[in-house]
Design goal:
TATA-Binding Protein, 5-stranded mixed beta sheet, alpha+beta, about 120 residues
């Protein structure tokens, strides 16, 4: 059985590994950079797109995950990837994943943690 600290460290490793994999995909349009932003002390993890597309500045948070109370919270996902399903495939239990972009009443129906 893992300790709570082991689980938190494992969650941090899995989130970073997953976002680094997603960040390998660059948008097919514009001169867009893909940045991963990892605040490992406060447990905030993001992928950001920035650059130029048709003379317009692009700065967009594509994915945002936090680790709070030993659970992985998904706050933003503007891609076609099913982050929660990918986390489960990587060994994260559904009860450790919160769909933070959904209201609490909808989370109860999701099959994942409520919060």
């Amino acid at each position: 059985m893992d300790t709570l600290m082991d689980r938190s460290i494992r969650h941090q490793e899995v989130v970073q590994q997953l976002l680094l994999k997603y960040a390998e995909s660059k948008p097919a349009y514009g001169e867009i950079e893909v940045e991963t932003i990892f605040d490992t002390q406060r447990h905030h993890y993001q992928i950001v797109h920035l650059g130029w597309h048709h003379k317009r500045w692009v700065h967009h948070c594509v994915m945002h995950l936090d680790i709070r109370d030993r659970k992985i919270w998904i706050f933003q996902n503007s891609t076609e990837h099913d982050i929660a399903a990918d986390l489960v495939e990587m060994g994260v239990p559904k009860q450790d994943i919160v769909l933070g972009f959904q209201p609490p009443f909808a989370r109860e129906l999701s099959g994942y943690a409520v919060g």
